[in-house]
Structure formats: C-alpha cells, structure tokens
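Hi everyone, sorry if this is the wrong subforum. Our group has a chain we'd like a structural model of before ordering constructs, and none of us has done structure prediction before. Sequence below.
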Amino acid sequence: MAATLVALAAGAAPALVDHFANTVPKEAHNYRSVEVVRRRTKAKQRVVQRKMRIPFGKHPSKEEKRMREAFLPGRVHEATKREATMRLSLQKGTVPASEDFDRVVQVFARRARQEMKWASVQRREFIRRAKRWATEMLLQELEPSPTTVQALMLGFAVTGDRAGAKWWLSWLQRTPGREAGRLAYNCVIEAFGMDGRPKEAEAWLNQMREAGIVPDARSHAGVVQAWERIGNRQAMLEKLLQVRDLEADGELGEPLNPTDAGLPYYALARSYMKVADAVRALSVLKLLQAKRVPLSVEAHLLRLESHLRVPPGPRRSVPEIERAFVDVVKNRPKSGPVMMPELAEKCGWALGQERFQEILAQHGAGFADVVATELPSQNRVHGYRIAKVQTSIASGQGPKLSLNLKEDDGEYIKQRLRDRRGAKVGVVKAGIRIPGQKGLPEWMTLPKPVRFAT
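Answer:
Right subforum, don't worry. Here is the predicted structure as tokens:
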C-alpha cells in the first residue's frame, strides 16, 4: 500500500508543477509580502496627508521628520515704525535727515550689545540692520556722526561681526576728517576674538602697531579671547606672559578704561571656570587683586560662577558663594541686571531662597535689578537655526548660509551701486534685444525696485 502511494505521488508531482506554472505569474507576491507593501503604502499616504503650518523651512531634516519655524525668536526681524517711515520716504524720493539715520543706527547698535535682554541670534540681527542703515546713509551721500560710528564698532566687537568691523575701519582710514584710533582697532581685534580666529586677531594687532598706535590690555585681550574660544590654554598662557613682559618694559598702552587692565586675565579665568577648576580661576583673579587692578562686575561674576560650578560636597564653600554674591550685588551697574536666570537659580539653590532674598533686601536691590528676564529657550533658537539651513538648501545661497559665513559688506555696496545705475534696456542672455515696430516688451521697460537698508 505504501509503495503504491509513493508511486502515485511521484507521478502527480510534475503535473502539479506544470499546473501552477501555467496559472500563477512569476512576479506575483506571496501573501506576506503583499501585506508588507500595502502597509508601507498606507503609511506614506498618511504622511503626505498630514497638514503643516507655514512659513517653515522648505526641506525637512532626515533625522527629524518635521518642519521648523523660519522666524527669529521674538519676531525681531519685523520692521519698526521708524524703519517703515524712512523706507516710505526714500521710495518717494525724499531723503530723511542725517539725525534720523543716526537715531536708527544707534538704537540697533545698542540693542546688539544688550546681552542680558536679547539672545545671540537676535543681537546679530540687530547689528545687521544697524550697519545696513549706516550703509544706506552713505549711499544717500550722508555721513554718520562719530557717536554713531563708535556705537557701530562696539556692536561689531560684541557680536563678532568681523566683516562689518573691517569695512568700517577702512572707511575711517580713507575718509578725510576721520581717524581710526585705538577704539576702532580694538573693536576689530575683539570681533575676531569673539569669532575664534587668533591668527587674524594677532595680524590686526601688528597692523595696529604699524599705524603708530600702541596696543593696550584690551587689544591683547582680544587675542587671548580668540585662543579661549578654540580651547588652546597653552597659547593663552604664552600670550599672558608676553603681556606681562610688555607691561614690565613700559611698552603697554594706557587703557581707555581702568578696568580694561584685567581683561586678558578674565579670559584665562573663564577657561578654568568652564571646567569647574575653581582653585585656578580664583588664583588668576587674586593675582589681579594683588596688582591692585580695579575689578569690574565681570570679575565678581566669574568668581561666583567658579564657586557654583564646584559639585556639592566638601570642596564647595557656601560662605564663599555668599561673599561672591554680595560683591556682585554691591558692584552691579545702574544700567540694568547682571545675572542670567540660570545663574541666579543655581545661586538660590546653593544659598537657599530665603537667604538669597535677604541679601538682595539688605543692599536695596530687587530681583529684577539683578536678574535678567527669561531669554528665548534654547530649543526655540536651535529650531530657528535648523529652519535657516533647511530654507537655504533650495536657494542659491545654500552653502554660504549653511556654513554661517560672514557676508561681505563691500560687495553689498558694490551691488547697490550697480542697481542704482540701472540695467541696460533690452539686455537678454544672448545679447541686446533690438526694439521692433511695437517696441520692447513691457517687462523690459519696468524699473527695478530698490530695497533700502535690507
């Protein structure tokens, strides 16, 4: 019986193979693969049907499948009423007074220096608009006042806008009646220091000497700060030794502000503070105290944060934290707060909220007098930067914006002058179009709109 079944199976197998070969196509999927493809198709349809708000960056991140808002935090990119009024006046052919230009430039340049009130991306937007209005002033054959130029240079130094600092220094050098002094050179060096470019900062220090201006402590502090930005502490120490030798030989310039004498040492103390090495950070500050150098509120803040970064335990000294906080409150400037909310929160946890408020009350200071308001969150700022890169991918400026390269102010002015001359009528890619019997098309005769201070 078993032999008979084996023989029948052997004879029926070729017939079954031929039957399925003729009825089922070769490219047909089995049931499991069809279900997988069907599920993937439905998932893609759900992603396509998902609605998103606008405006956003055009290209989503490959790692995070969602778009980001391409707006600056606080919507500081929107034009103010004064800007809108001046643009409308320029479009009508009426040039505003030089005092109006000076007022706009000074307002934005001062906002760019308010680190306790605005985030870094907001301050860079302010200094960009300040120099655009100053450039528009030159294009309208007006000259900014010395106060306006000084506010611009200080804004370039704080925000690290090396392109603007270089261009306006060259403008001071070639303009009759203007002088590029120590303040202007210091601002250029500090701008390169903020951007972490020590070689270029050192080169500008040498140009300062060639111009007959003796560098002071603030000039060398820009180079030390550049080395601190890239984390080269050995180069910082070598530069500080050079500053000490120049001071001993009497070849160091007299500082414009007495507290500027300690700026090179502040950068070294900050580098130790960032790694919670309170002993070395405080030793640097004690060196300044032994030399009887006037200390600014920045030195007291460095001392306070150095103690706060020490982990809780036997190495942390709460009395030292209290003394440092008292010095910060006593030496605070009248212009505004000096502490960020994060630092104040750490200090409150270390001292206790009751003791924190008692110290403020003893010195007649309110919480808002010492602690700044909350800045835009890091997630919001990070989202704007991602949206900026996403938007730049599809534009012609993609690599430039993605790498965060500084714009060339000289090229901007050249382009504005070319736009002012106007394009030749009838210019096309193949040459110049000759007007026919009916003349040129209307789009060739339309004047190109001028975008003032953008």
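For your construct planning: Residues 2-23 form the longest helix (22 residues). The chain has a mean pLDDT of 82.
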